[in-house]
Automatic annotation (TrEMBL):
Residues 72-91, 107-126 form the Helix-hairpin-helix DNA-binding motif class domain. The lineage of its organism: Bacteria, Bacillati, Actinomycetota, Actinomycetes, Micrococcales. The RuvA-RuvB-RuvC complex processes Holliday junction (HJ) DNA during genetic recombination and DNA repair, while the RuvA-RuvB complex plays an important role in the rescue of blocked DNA replication forks via replication fork reversal (RFR). RuvA specifically binds to HJ cruciform DNA, conferring on it an open structure. The RuvB hexamer acts as an ATP-dependent pump, pulling dsDNA into and through the RuvAB complex. HJ branch migration allows RuvC to scan DNA until it finds its consensus sequence, where it cleaves and resolves the cruciform DNA. Homotetramer. Forms an RuvA(8)-RuvB(12)-Holliday junction (HJ) complex. HJ DNA is sandwiched between 2 RuvA tetramers; dsDNA enters through RuvA and exits via RuvB. An RuvB hexamer assembles on each DNA strand where it exits the tetramer. Each RuvB hexamer is contacted by two RuvA subunits (via domain III) on 2 adjacent RuvB subunits; this complex drives branch migration. In the full resolvosome a probable DNA-RuvA(4)-RuvB(12)-RuvC(2) complex forms which resolves the HJ. This is Holliday junction branch migration complex subunit RuvA. Gene3D superfamilies: 5' to 3' exonuclease, C-terminal subdomain (1.10.150.20), DNA helicase RuvA subunit, C-terminal domain (1.10.8.10), Nucleic acid-binding proteins (2.40.50.140). Pfam families: HHH_5, RuvA_C, RuvA_N. It comes from the Bacteria. Belongs to the RuvA family. Has three domains with a flexible linker between the domains II and III and assumes an 'L' shape. Domain III is highly mobile and contacts RuvB. Residues 152-201 are annotated as: Domain III. One of its GO terms (molecular function) is ATP binding. It is found in: Cytoplasm. GO terms for cellular component: cytoplasm; Holliday junction helicase complex; Holliday junction resolvase complex.
Length: 201
C-alpha cells in the first residue's frame, strides 16, 4: 500500500495531480478541493490510497489523512466505489460526511451525485457507528493558479462536474449560475468550488 507521497508537483488538473517522486511522475486522482490548494512546482505531501483492479492500479490522493480515511471507509458499503467516494468528498468535507452519517441526514447525503434515498439509507445504516466525531475545523488555503479565460474555463468546470457524476444539464446550469456572479478573472478551481456549492444547495 502506498500511504503517502511527497515530492514536487509536476502538474495540477481539476481532479488530478502529477507528483514527481524520485524521478518518476505519479498520477494521483484527487478532489477539486485538494487540487485547488496546490500549484505546479511546489513541494507537496498527500495522503494516498492505491485502488487495485484486475486491469488497473489507480492512486488517489488527499490533502489530509481524514479525507483518505473517509474515502476508504465509505467504500466498505456495497455499491460504493472509488468514483462515488471521490464525488462524496468533492461535495462534502470528511466532517460533514461524518455528521450526516451519524445524524442520519439523508437530505445532505442525497446531494451527492449518484446517491439516492436508498443508497443514503444504506450508508447511514452501515456507517453511523463506524465514523468518529468531527475533528476541529481546519482553514482552507487554496492557491489559484493561472487559468484560461471565458468559455474555456466554463467548459473545463462543466467537464469536471460531469466526471464527478452530475448530468451535463446539471453541470451546465450550475456553471451558468456561478459565471454570472464570479470574478471575471476567477480561476478554474475557484469556479469549480462555487459550482460544487451551487449543486449542493
Amino acid at each position: 500500500m502506498i500511504a503517502s507521497l511527497t515530492g514536487r508537483v509536476g502538474h495540477v488538473g481539476l481532479d488530478r495531480l502529477v507528483i514527481e517522486v524520485g524521478g518518476v511522475g505519479m498520477l494521483v486522482h484527487t478532489t477539486p478541493r485538494t487540487a485547488a490548494e496546490l500549484r505546479t512546482g511546489q513541494e507537496a505531501s498527500v495522503a494516498t490510497t492505491l485502488v487495485v483492479r484486475e486491469d488497473s492500479l489507480t492512486l488517489f490522493g488527499f490533502g489530509s489523512v481524514a479525507e483518505r480515511d473517509m474515502f476508504e471507509t465509505v467504500q466498505t458499503v456495497s455499491g460504493v466505489g472509488p468514483r462515488l467516494a471521490l464525488a462524496m468528498l468533492s461535495v462534502l468535507t470528511p466532517d460533514e460526511v461524518s455528521a450526516a452519517l451519524r445524524g442520519g441526514d439523508l437530505a445532505t447525503l442525497t446531494k451527492i451525485p449518484g446517491v439516492g434515498k436508498k443508497s443514503a439509507e444504506r450508508l447511514v445504516l452501515e456507517l453511523k457507528d463506524k465514523v468518529g466525531m468531527p475533528s476541529a475545523p481546519q482553514g482552507a488555503s487554496a492557491t489559484s493558479a493561472a487559468a484560461p479565460s471565458g468559455d474555456v474555463r466554463r467548459d473545463q468546470v462543466a467537464e469536471a462536474l460531469v466526471g464527478l457524476g452530475w448530468s451535463a444539464k446539471q453541470a451546465g446550469d450550475a456553471v451558468a449560475v456561478v459565471s454570472k456572479s464570479a470574478d471575471p478573472d476567477a480561476s478554474v478551481a475557484a469556479l469549480l468550488r462555487m459550482a460544487l456549492r451551487e449543486l449542493g444547495r
